Amino acid sequence: MVSCKSVYEPREDSTMLETWVKKYAKGRVLDVGTGSGIQAIAAAQSNNVKSVLATDVQKEVIDYCKKCVKNKKIRFLQSDLFKRIKGKFDTIIFNPPYLPQDLQLKDLTIEGGKKGYEVIEQFLSEASNFLNPNGLILMVFSSLTKKEKVEEFIKNNIFDFEELEKQHIFFEDIYFYLLRKNELLKKLENEKITNVKYLTKGHRGLLYIGLYKNKKIAVKTKNPKSTAFGRIENEAKWLKILNKHKIGPKLLLIDKDYFVYDYIGGNFIIDYIKKSNKNNIKKIIKKIFNQLFVLDKLKIDKEEMHRPLKHIIMSKNKPFLIDFERSRYSPNPKNVTQFCQFLINSRLNQILKSKKMHINKQKIINLAKVYKNNKNKVNLDKILKQI
Ligand SMILES: C[S@@+](CC[C@H](N)C(=O)[O-])C[C@H]1O[C@@H](n2cnc3c(N)ncnc32)[C@H](O)[C@@H]1O
User: Fold this and answer.
1) What is the CATH number of domain 267-385?
2) Is the entire prediction scored with pTM above 0.90?
3) Closest atom, ligand 1, to C-alpha of 13
4) Domain residue spans in the chain?
5) Which residues contact residue 163 at a Cβ distance below 8 angstroms, ignoring those fewer than 6 apart?
6) Residues having CB within 6 Å of any atom of ligand 1
7) Of all atoms in ligand 1, which is nearest to the CA of residue 122?
8) Residues 204-227: tens digit of each pLDDT
């Protein structure tokens, strides 16, 4: 037998994972970080498995496997995670290096980065692109890797998981997890949306980002913790209406559980104002007022325009109103008047003063009252003249 010091000699984690591989491996299998080839061999022995691609970042490991493992179902390839991998698999196996580097061992077979979870994080951020819709991932990690972190990465990449087994060995707990694509991820991928990642959550919605037709997009779904009813449909409905008036990010797809729109990258309004000069600020404020006037005319109340801190994004010198979850038809919409309130609030006023922009609070209040009683262009223009 050829020996090689770069090869991870199978330990308890390997033999326990091997049992799960025998039970679950199916179809086309990818064994990432194959080491001695133990998982690849176990998979190849299963009648449910058609072929196995076994990879490792270390060339010596692949050379070793090519010499020592003779199995027609298995092909070996040197690859750093998915870098040289093509196609999709039904099963992906990964017994990663998962120990923190503070041990200073400089050993690729067991160290998974500074904190121990970096290799797993990278693996999970790419895995869905290489996994068939009903595929599964068998993965190992340890309590030394930080379970909460690993679970966060799993959720951020929109996988569901199941703990198959937990074993206490010497000074650590070892976890064996089975991951599958979440239904949302499958649906989005079915629509040709790739690289889907969790971005953030609001009270009612969860926001993801992804790629669609080579463009960055955002996906909004219901926050399962929210009891609010019909918000997703509501927001998609408003976007559809407002897009016709060139307001809001462009709506791309609608489903009952989610909608997809152009991702707007840029600064929130306050950050933009802080960074910009007087002339640009004036132009932008006027553009926002004009959009809000359209909303008033359509009798749509967007709500929250008196503190629109996270509701207006500046992108390529264009203001985008976002978040229409609470929008509603109203006989008396308050978009323009609420934005007047925002303009005269003391925090914003301080910032504007530092840009040598002085807004006459009393005049704005008076003009907002006039506008409120008669929402027409003439009255809007009177407000704009004060900016
Ligand atoms: C803990 S060993 C597991 C070996 C074997 N699969 C087993 O279950 O015994 C981790 C393996 O992952 C490999 N590895 C480390 N970083 C990798 C990376 N970025 N891409 C692919 N393989 C990697 C190491 O060379 C090592 O062979």
Assistant:
1) 1.10.510
2) no
3) 8
4) 12-181, 186-262, 267-385
5) 175, 176, 177
6) 8, 10, 14, 17, 32-36, 38-39, 55-58, 61, 80-81, 95-97, 108-110, 119
7) 19
8) 789 999 999 999 999 999 877 777
